[in-house]
Amino acid sequence: MSFSDASVNKRYLLWCVNEHVNFRLSEIVSIASLFQIDISWIEQPSEKPFLVVQFREEQDVKKLMSRTVLIRSAFKLWGQGATYQELHTELKQVSLENIEPFCHPDKSFKVEVETFGKKISRTDKVNRIEGLDFLPLHGPIKLKDPDNIFCLIEYYGLDPNSVPDNPYQVFFGQWICDGQRHLITQTALKDRKFIGNTSMDPTLSLIMANMAKIYHGDLVLDPFVGSGFPSSLMYFQLFKKSGSLLVAAATFGGYVCGTDLDFLMLHGKAKPTRCKQKMREPDENIRSNLRQYGLESHYIDVIVADAALPVWSDQCMFDAIIADPPYGIREATERIGTAKTYTIPDHLVSGHIPSKVSYNLQDIIRDLLNFSGDHLCVGGRLVYWLPVFKNDFQADLVPAHPSLKLISLSEQSLNLHSSRYLVTMERLPQIFKDCKENRNGARVPETTRVFRDKYFQRALQRRLQTCSGQTHIDQSN
After folding, report:
1. Residue 299 CB coordination number (10 Å)
2. What is the structure's pLDDT at 339?
3. Beta-strand (E) ranges in 196-283?
4. Read out DSSP for 38-97?
5. What element of type H or E holds 73?
6. How many CB atoms within 10 Å of residue 129?
7. How many CB atoms lie within 10 A of CB 210?
8. Maximum Cα–Cα distance for the chain, whole Å?
9. Which of 88, 313, 354, 383 is most deeply packed, by most CB within 10 A?
10. What sign does the CA torsion over 287, 290, 292, 296 have?
11. What is the reported pLDDT for 274?
């Protein structure tokens, strides 16, 4: 595939990480929308770990990379080909006028070789680099902190069981900048001050913040700040969300607050979940997590409150609402209420602890959408997780609200029968806000209500099948 010299300076290679592939395009589009970046796809996005795109200017690339956690590095693309012969031919056709600023004798450089899908020896890498000696790179070679870094990348496909002798595609370009992968390590759960029962993957937390288009000064709410669900139904982990979404939102400049019904968790009074930890430290709470990452100035507060009975006034508007609702698997789904009718004596009112009733997932999602439709700023986003039973799910069964526009659905497969979708919705213009019929107009399918029951039914079936198989083995022995 050849390109004109006019497009060389605008053609870029985005090298992605090979994880959360289903979220990649949605994250890129959301960040592009946030910064009003125009992206043209030279090659249509696919499961391949790279994107060949065109930007108006290099500054747009840097803006994108300042937020993404699913793109490892960005390169100004000088050439590409299905073979080295094609690559070399294209590189020889690049106008010197376009690359002269990077080839000056005073500009030091180095060339790196990266491969995807196959490891090659150091000797092979050196031979690849020597094959590029026709490039007019006149500056001194400097392996540490050079002025320019060039990268030769070989792509061998996605199937580790069928690796070709030669790469399917080869790229050569100038390194521009890296994405924000360091934030994942920086906010790792194992080093976090305060954790609880279930985890939210730091990568997914940051992706949610990007999908919500959180920016400096935004007001962000997590209405289930202490609830949540493990990032994998197959491998239960011993951490709790404990404000993970607030950390991610504050990392990108949001001012964060949250609510939850669990008083003990919010105030760090619950039983410790770390191995061998007998009691929590006095300052072990959500605020301390923000303080740990230097983000305490972006922490507003967390409030003990029922998501079914919002404490916010009609005038309170949020720029973003991010949520990982409890599904009833490892976290209880409860709300304040009772099936009984009784009167609390006046002298007991101050110390009364309200009773709770079951709060099914369908009602949780309905209340979340109704609240978001009424309390999001125009253009503000709701980003939340929706668990589904794979056999039941269809695109037209996604919960809807007349004041919210569906932006994207990104699937994370959890096991053979269950998935969860990251749902991104955007608040429609103000004309919808005053329509009374829209204020409680959320439509949530019945399949959402029965997710928990079906999940446990399938788990029981698998357990019985496993026991039956074991019995058969024991009898045969």
Report:
1. 21
2. 65
3. 219-222, 255-260
4. -EEESS---SSSEEEEEESSHHHHHHHHTT-SSEEEEEEEEEEESSHHHHHHHHHHS-HH
5. strand 71-81
6. 16
7. 23
8. 90
9. 383
10. negative
11. 56
